[in-house]
């Protein structure tokens, strides 16, 4: 009896387990190589994508860092502003005190008849423009006070503003240096050059000098003998090339509207 044996074939699969493992390892290696190759591009793309957010974040944190400085600067400005207001208030108080003292001093001078050193007669101004004609003063001193025509009228010890032109028993009238037609002979204090000035009315004094005469705005015009008095201040100088002269416009040394007391003396007291 014959026995039949079935032959078993060991057909090893080409794609068996070992092969698949090797293939898997190979693919993993290729994958990592690919990742390494594209990582720089990926980082660049990611950086570009998130850069706006990063910039916003940087600005935000930068702003946070500036907050303390902002409040510090604001507080500093507030303090400086408060200090300035305090200084202004103090200045206003000082000015008010000065004006008050100035007013009290003026009233005391008037009440006590205080006058400059020398042989002066103190006089109160009864009336001045516009109550009376321009460039004149009506005073409360006259013949009984030994006042005479052509006596000097001063606003201070060395400030000459006019002279007496009319005298009554206990009153007198003074014409200011600016009275129309009033002539005063003096000189420019800066150069000692002699000068004739003439009242033009309305508080103005004028002179006409050669075009090469040395006189400028701000020059002081003086007059007098042994004592010198300030009579005018130059306010305008205009050249007239066609005539070869300068027209000089001047004003009184003080604002007449702001004084209430004058001092009278004669030329012989010089």
Question: How are the SSEs ordered, and which strands pair?
Answer:
Layout: H1 17-112, E1 121-127, E2 136-139, E3 152-156, E4 159-167, E5 172-176, E6 183-188, E7 194-201, E8 204-210, E9 220-224, E10 228-240, E11 245-251, E12 261-265
Antiparallel strand pairs: 1-2, 1-12, 2-5, 3-4, 3-12, 4-5, 6-7, 6-9, 7-8, 8-11, 9-10, 10-11
Defining key terms:
disordered N terminus; Thrombin, subunit H; alpha+beta; single chain; 1 helix; 270 residues; 30% strand; 6-stranded antiparallel beta barrel
How would you describe this protein?
The chain has 270 residues and is of the alpha+beta class. It has a domain at 121-269: Beta Barrel (Thrombin, subunit H). The protein has 1 helix and 12 strands; from the N terminus they run αββββββββββββ. It has one helix at 17-112, and strands at 121-127, 136-139, 152-156, 159-167, 172-176, 183-188, 194-201, 204-210, 220-224, 228-240, 245-251, 261-265. β6 and β7 (194-201) form a beta hairpin. The relative contact order is 0.10. Residues 1-15 have low confidence and may be disordered.
């Amino acid at each position: 009896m014959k026995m039949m044996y079935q032959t078993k074939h060991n057909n090893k699969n080409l794609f068996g387990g070992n092969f698949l493992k090797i293939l898997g390892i190979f693919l993993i290696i290729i994958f990592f190589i690919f990742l390494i190759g594209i990582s720089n591009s990926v980082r660049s793309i990611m950086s570009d994508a998130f850069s706006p957010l990063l910039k916003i974040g940087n600005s935000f944190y930068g702003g946070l860092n500036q907050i303390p400085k902002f409040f510090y600067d604001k507080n500093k400005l507030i303090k400086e502003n408060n200090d300035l207001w305090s200084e202004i208030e103090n200045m206003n108080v000082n000015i008010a005190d000065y004006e008050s003292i100035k007013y009290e001093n003026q009233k005391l001078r008037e009440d006590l008849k205080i006058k400059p050193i020398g042989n002066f007669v103190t006089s109160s101004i009864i009336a001045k423009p516009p109550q009376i004609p321009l460039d004149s003063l009506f005073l409360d001193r006259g013949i009984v006070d030994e006042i005479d025509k052509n006596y000097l009228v001063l606003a201070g010890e060395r400030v000459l503003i006019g002279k007496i032109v009319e005298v009554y028993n206990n009153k007198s009238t003074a014409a200011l240096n600016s009275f129309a037609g009033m002539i005063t002979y003096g000189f420019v204090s800066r150069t000692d050059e002699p000068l004739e000035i003439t009242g033009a009315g309305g508080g103005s004094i004028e002179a006409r000098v050669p075009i090469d005469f040395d006189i400028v705005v701000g020059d002081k015009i003086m007059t007098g003998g042994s004592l010198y008095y300030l009579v005018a201040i130059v306010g305008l100088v205009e050249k007239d090339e066609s005539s070869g002269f300068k027209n000089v416009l001047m004003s009184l040394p003080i604002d007449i509207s702001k004084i209430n007391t004058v001092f009278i003396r004669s030329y012989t007291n010089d």
